[in-house]
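User: structure tokens for this one?
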Amino acid sequence: MDYFVVDAFIFTAVSSNKEYDFVSRFFAPNAGIPEDPVTGSSHSTLIPFWAEKLNKNRLIARQLSKRGGTLYCENKGDRVKISGKAKLYLEGKLHI
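Assistant:
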């Protein structure tokens, strides 16, 4: 029997709140992340998807986790731009 392990799930939908174009949630339980509060990496996939669906290149997204966050997104063709507020979660020095 063939099977595969899914490392992450992204759930997304058009927003019912007119303030946002789309909403999402991101889960990666096999990576030890029950739910990511705000995920830039998943939005790099979601932005081109929603830009095409909604026929617009500038989008406002809302991640609906407990902490939540708003992302200001732009589809640039071969790249995406994401901006918003961030919280510092790690600070350190790297010695090579």
